[in-house]
Structures are given as C-alpha cells and as structure tokens.
Amino acid sequence: MSFVATTPVAATSVADKIASTLAASSVADLIALPVPATSVAKMMSSPKPSTSFAEHQATSQFIPKLVVRKKIAYGAGLLLLFLANIFCRSDLKVTNAERIENQNVSRDQLPNTDMIPPLEDTVKPDLLDSTQYVMGKFEPSTHVSFIKIPLDLATREGMYLRKEAYEAFQKMAFAAKKENVNLKIVSATRNFKAQKMIWDRKWRDLAAVAKSQNIKVSHQGLVARAQKIMEYSSMPGTSRHHWGTDIDLNALDNAYFSKGEGKNIYHWLSTHAFSYGFCQPYTENRPSGYKEEKWHWTYMPISRTLTDFCARKLTNNLILGFEGAATAEAIDVVKKYQLEINPACK
Known about the structure:
13 helices, extended
C-alpha cells in the first residue's frame, strides 16, 4: 500500500533556490554562451557617453545580441522553475518501504491493514488469527477468501469453502474418480448463524421431550442435554465447520462407511487423503469430545493454524448467544471438544 503526501509544494521555496542560483551566477554561466566578461561588465555598469563614432557603432551592434541572450536566459530560468516544481511534487510520493528507509520508522509503528477482522455480510481482508473468524461470525458467501462449491462436487448448491481447501479437495476428488471413487461434499462451511439454528432446534427438541415427561431439569440436567447434542453437533462458536477448512463427505452415518461403496470410499480416504492435506479429526478412541465421524475431513495446512490459535485465545466464556450456552464452562467445551481431535491432525 502506497501513501501519497498531500501537503502542497512550497513553490516560493523552489523559486528562492533558483533565484539564489541566478544571483550567484552570471547569465553567461547559466546558458553557457561565450559572452566576453568585458562586455557583461560594460552592460552592468552605468552607461558612458561614446568618445568616438567607431566606439558608438560597435556598442550599438552588440546591444541587440545581448538583449536576445538575456531573453533566452530568462526563459531558461522559468523552465527550470517549472521542472523543479514538478520534480519536487513527484518526489513526495513515498511508499511504506521508503518511509522506513528514509525516516528509520519501525514496521511495527505503521498501520497494518491486514489486521482488520472480517465483519458479517461484508467482504473484508482475511484474518485467520481472529476470534470472530474462528467463531464463524462472518458470511462465507461474501468473504474474499471463500469460493462457492460447484454442483459436480457437492450434493446441493450454496455451499462454500476457503479457496485453498476447495482447490485441494478438487485435486483429491479428481484423483479418486480415476480409481472409481466418487467423493461428494454434503456439508462444508457453516457460520455461527447456521450452527445456531441446528443447535437451538436440537435443544428445543430435547426440552420438549423433558417437558412431555414432566421432568424437572437441573443445571446438571442442562449439562447432560448439551452433552447429548454434542455427540455429533458442536456448540455455535466452537465448530470446525466455521473455518472453511472442514467438509463432510458422502453420508453423515458411520454405518454407510462400513460396507459396499462407503467402505471403498473410506478406505481410499484413509490411504490417500493425507497426501492432499486432509485428515479425519474425529476418530475413535479419543479421551473425550465428539464421537467418531468417518465423514468429517479437515484441510490441515490451514486448520492446524486455527487449532493452535483456539488453544491460545479461545475461552469458554466467549461461547455465548444460543440456547444452553451457560453450560459451556461446566463442560469445558473448548478443551474437551474443540481441541480434542486426532493427534495426526494437529
């Protein structure tokens, strides 16, 4: 990003410099014409009456030439003034790098335009290490780093991924197709709003069941309700699907991947996905967190960075804005769910 100075050039200062140069030099010096010094001295001194006809004749022949040379010198001076002013103006166009070199300004003191977090419904410069980003508080369809997934690679329209993740998946899907394995995305990026709709619906459904059975629900009961939902669904603000790096493939059912076509798909992914940057984050035999999801794959070159950021910056008290959010701290949702993934994906 270049910064252009808007302070007007002080023309008088440039004119003063040229005037001082003119004052310090003779006209002959400025335009490099061979005018005899005796003639210039004669021009500058007070006129004296001619003592002879011959001298008068010589002087009258010299004066017209001298007048022409004076006009040329004056025009050259104006041209120098004009060019100097243009040069000074163009010289004031300074880039960030030039400011640092010329003024010894630290890079840390300059405004960082990349550190503007993406806002909802607005295309903004990308920022991975932002709590707003990792919590899904932006709109993928208008985000500069996201791309719409074409229908030939998805089961429905209107899904989005980060461009890097999409390009890697596209290569993986084409490679799989050569081996008669058909990969289809059934779910991709879900922002906070989308995840909230899923969560609140499930929360209300379980609340309705408790009400129909006349069950009084304590805080522990609310925690248990949240944990029941979190067998396969994330609390809004903690889902990896917020990031644009994670995809669900072919079917949301582990049983599908245990036989027939699904088994072939899972075997191919387990063998080849890692070479395209993808990893299964929710495997079996983890100490806590979501149950195994054979359909869920994450694009590690970016999701590793985001996982590390969440480990350092995301806290349970930030998880707000949906039904049952008060249970987040009691569950320790960030540590025991969001960060509890397959070690190979970290």
